[in-house]
Structures are given as C-alpha cells and as structure tokens.
Amino acid sequence: MLNNLPRSAWLCLILFVAGGPVIAQRSPEAEAWRKKTLDTFRNAKPTPALARVSAVDRLLAIEEIRQIPYKYCRCINQRDWDCWTNLFAPDSDYWNSKLGVVKGPSGMYQHLIATGMTSERVHSQFVILGGPEIELLSPTTARGTFQEEYTFSSVGVDPSAPKGEVVTGGEETRAFGVYYQTYGKIEGKWKIKSNIHLDLRIDKGPVSPQATFINSEAPPK
User: Which of 33, 38, 171, 216 could form a disulfide with 95 if both were Cys (CB 3.0 to 4.6 A apart)?
Assistant: First the structure.
C-alpha cells in the first residue's frame, strides 16, 4: 500500500499530532523515527495465531478497533485531550520537532502543548472520509488506515502559544490525507501502537471573517 505512493507524496510527508501537522524535520532522529514507524506498519502481517480467532471474534475486534479513528477525530474536535491521549498505548511514540520523540499518553499531551493545539485561539475540525479499513493480525494486534480532511484555524495571535507549528494567527489550513496506524490489545482494550500521517493536499489562507467557532462541550460520562 505505502510502496505505491508517488514520490511527491513522500516529499509532502507530514507527521501528525494531536490535532496539528508538524512538518517532518530531516534530522537523523526524525528520519529514524519516520523510517521505524513506516516499517512498523509495513511489517505488521497476519500471524499464525490469527487462525485461532473465530469469525465472530474477528468481527467484534475489528468493530472495536474501527471506533478508534472516529474517537481520534471527535476527541480533537471537542478539545477533549484526555480522551485523545488515552487512545495511545503506553509504549507508543511520536515525533515532535521541539521535543524529539515523545512516548505514551503523557508524551502525546506534551506534544499537544508544544504544537499550540491547547491554545484557546486555535480551532480544529477533523472529518473521516469513508470508513476506516481495519486488518486483524492476531488476537492482540491489528493495523488500519483511514482517510480524513482536517482544518486548523487561528482567530488571532496568542503571545503565550508556540508559534508556527499548527497554524499562524489569523490563518487557516485545510488538508486531506491518510493515516496509517497499528494497534495492540492491552488489558482488554485496543490502543494505538504506532501512528503516522501522509498529507495528499494542503490549502492555506486567511480565516474567513464570517467564520464562527464554538467549542462543543462533551456531556459528562
């Protein structure tokens, strides 16, 4: 699947964070993380143990994993950062241009802060295009892809927020891309083990003066 991507798509590789794109830095550390994460997805293959999983259990597992991309987008849209970070496994990692490699849910939250996503001036909207494609590999491992459209908008300059990572003040970024993720079942729950994002198209411009941003409060659980 990844081997068929055009060269231009590789050159546009964007590592996605919590709601925001971070342009890949070609430092040795960043390149090593990128290669490792792509190889993790490529090398995630069905195992002999999959034969022991019944057809019903396969469908149940796939449906449970399929909820993760939907939650991934909704949690960002509602700025529910605990919801979003808890989708990741403790041993998952991600690349941040300021922090380097961050690990686990706590590292992903630091990643959010470093990219300015937690700023009240930054607004985001994620929409999945079509349904996630999930492939069960064993009773406890899987991989999947999903296509999405995301928009980041900044209603103004926040002097206390990190600059230039997600979107600059008064501007808006709209993009289309594909996520590649692997999953693991940990203590009975499926979590994201690896996560990388490839953008296919990016549009940038000023925020529309007619735009109104409303933070959608999540009801208590």
Answer: 33
Check: CB of residue 112 under 8 Å from CB of residue 22: no
State residue 215's pLDDT score. Answer: 73
161-188 average pLDDT score: 86
Looking at the domain covering 2-206, what would its CATH class be? alpha beta
Q: Say how far apart CA 133 and CA 68 lie, in whole Å.
A: 11
Six-digit token string for 197: 């994002």
| Lookup result for tokens 């399929």 | 66
For the cut 50, the answer to whether the pLDDT of residue 16 exceeds it is no
CA atoms lying within 13 Å on the CB side of residue 193: 20
Q: What are the pLDDT digits (tens) for 78-96?
A: 999 999 999 999 999 999 9
How many angstroms separate the CA atoms of 98 and 114, rounded? 7
Residue labelled with tokens 């509602």: 78
pLDDT of 55 reads 97
* Burial of residue 133, with CB atoms counted within 10 A of its CB: 0-12 exposed, 13-18 middle, 19 or more buried: middle
Closest CA to 105 of 84, 123, 124: 84
Do the Cβ atoms of 53 and 185 come closer than 8 Å? no
pLDDT at 169: 83
Instruction: Identify which of 128, 166, 133, 170 has the alpha carbon closest to the alpha carbon of residue 148.
Output: 128
Q: What is the pLDDT of residue 3?
A: 52
